[in-house]
Amino acid sequence: MSIVRIDESGGFEPGRAPAGALGVAVARWARRAARALLALLCLALVLPVLAVVGSWLAFDEAAAGVLRHQAATVLPEYAGQTLVLALGTGLGVLLLGATTAALVTLTDFPGRRVFEWALLLPLAMPAYVLAYAWTDALQFSSPLQGALREWLGRRGALWPDVRNAWSAAALFVLCLYPYVYLLARAALGERAVQMMEAARLLGAPLRRRVWAVALPMARPALAAGTALALMEVLADYGVGAYFGLATFSTGIYKAWLVMNDRVAALQLASALLLGVAVLLLVERRAQQRLRFSGTRAGAQHAGDARPLRLAGWAAWAALALCVLPVLLGFVLPVAWLLWLVWQEAQAAEFGLPLARFAQWGWASFKLAALAALLATALALALAFVLRRGRGALLRAGARVLALGYAMPGVVVGIGVLAPLAWVQQQWPQSGLVVLATGTVFGVLYAYLVRFCAVALQSVEAGYSRIPRSVDDTALLLGSGAVRVFGRLHLPLLKRSVLAALLLVFVDVMKELPATLLLRPFGSDTLAVVAYNFARDERLAEAALPSLAIVAVGLIPVLLLSRAMRAPDG
Predict the structure, then answer these.
(1) Dihedral pair phi/psi, residue 467, rounded to 5°
(2) 507 belongs to a structural domain
(3) Distance between CA 5 and CA 358 in Å, rounded?
(4) How many domains does the structure of the chain reveal?
(5) Residue 469 within a domain
(6) Residues of the domain holding 196
(7) Which of 9, 132, 186, 303 has most Cβ atoms within 10 angstroms of its Cβ?
(8) H or E element, residue 471
(9) What's the N-to-C CA distance of the chain in angstroms?
């Protein structure tokens, strides 16, 4: 006689009698051990945040003196230049992203279908690569300014040096406006065309339709996109260091590595983390409002209302507004970098250093691939346990872990090094600092802290499309948890897992500040090499690794644009 027993997880185990109590106890212990291990991993990944915030628990007179000294010397400058960057970038991405989203969603003009996806291309361009390209193109000794001086008969500089805070803000606008564009276009594309058509039929003029109908519908999306762009600005180190700006990120790096002042670095990191936390709160609230502000109810009637067709000067103006950001933020910088590579190949006696480039590319690929595999594996395990509804503490840890992506790379680096430095002071023979900075362990740890949230979000999105009734059916048929995961969930999560691997891989390839702080000697990545060449004014040599980073960044952008065009196809 076959006996069917319900185990602790709710699954049925046919053919096993209650006499197997030892096996049940072992399985129960294994499940609890797995949950405890996942909880410890989450705690380890949250440790850098706790290290930065917890540094204020040891606030003594010496730390107070450091804080007073910074407040009297460098802190006003750090706050001032960071505020200039934030204000300039925030206003720019808001105007440019909202305008382009409204044009491609609410109006019809020549080339609109092309710009629906082309406006995403600047997402593939890291801000520091854009800074290298435009600085080289616009500097006094560049062929562009030389030709203009000869044509105009001028000898002096035609424009001032571009390495300043406002130029940096303009570069950030060119590569970050797609955050606002994406969210605003999604919000407007739901029902805005139909609602504006209804307002037109009721006699509302165009200006009132835009301000009273379209703008309120897109307001949460605009706030969320702007907050995301500002978090990228606060996290930036490459542009600030290359332009010689005194921002919080450059100040943290200088305090730790140049001045060897751990207390000052932690205090600056705490201030930067506070600013990021405020922006994250704004973004989360805006996303919650966005979730309920738009609905697909009636989206099937989208064909009933057509976008406003532009003609004459209005059509040309819309075309120019969409061409300029793509041209300045992607096409011209890539063309200039290609020209620099060609010039370097012509000038070099033995051609391009392809052997060294392959070495840098292989080092970047290994780190990015390993980080992507580890982050995705952890995300899969964590999402599976959370799907089964076990472990409130683990669920809280996962939510805190999601904050890692909002943390600037330099803060993550300091958060990794600070506790290790304290342990090294207490136990000099431990060798933990050597383990973190002399091997790939430290930089991989920082990558997991920053980018596990990306993988977890992608995997959880995939799980949300799998009905729980599928799990219940499999358990009723006698499948255990491991078999349900391996034979049922993994095939259904294939696309989400690939997306998680790809997103983490691309983010690691572009990551600069954490890699600068924690990379082992002799394992430079493409981002580090490009930064070092640009810092030494060897911009022609920085062009090849920069182009490689842009090429890798193009992959998710092209996939995203393809996904956005799929409904139309």
Answers:
(1) -60, 145
(2) yes
(3) 58
(4) 1
(5) yes
(6) 39-56+78-565
(7) 132
(8) helix 468-476
(9) 57
Distance in angstroms (rounded) separating the CA atoms of residues 6 and 116: 53
pLDDT tens per residue across all 569 residues of the chain: 333 444 444 444 444 444 456 655 666 776 777 777 777 787 788 888 888 888 787 777 888 888 888 888 888 999 999 999 999 999 999 999 999 998 898 888 888 889 989 999 998 999 999 999 999 888 877 778 778 888 877 777 777 788 889 999 999 999 999 999 988 888 777 666 667 667 767 767 666 776 667 777 778 888 888 888 998 898 889 999 999 999 998 998 888 878 878 888 888 888 888 888 888 788 777 766 665 454 444 444 444 456 778 888 989 999 999 999 999 999 999 999 999 888 888 776 556 677 888 888 898 999 999 999 999 998 888 888 877 766 666 677 676 776 777 778 888 888 888 887 777 777 777 666 677 777 788 889 899 988 888 888 888 888 877 887 777 777 777 777 777 777 778 888 888 888 889 889 998 998 888 888 888 777 788 999 999 998 888 888 889 999 999 999 888 888 877 776 654 44
- The radius of gyration of the chain's CA atoms, rounded to the nearest angstrom, is 27
Distances (CA, A) of 162 to 92, 241, 405: 17, 14, 30
**CB of 236 closer than 8 Å to CB of 126:** no
Six-digit token string for 189: 């594309």
| Spatial distance between the Cα atoms of 389 and 384, rounded to a whole number of angstroms | 9
Question: Does residue 8 fall inside a structural domain?
Answer: no
CATH code of residue 184: 1.10.3720.10
DSSP SS3 for 2? coil
Please say whether the beta carbons of 73 and 264 come within 8 A: no
**Torsion from C-alpha of 133, 135, 140, 143, nearest 10 degrees:** 10
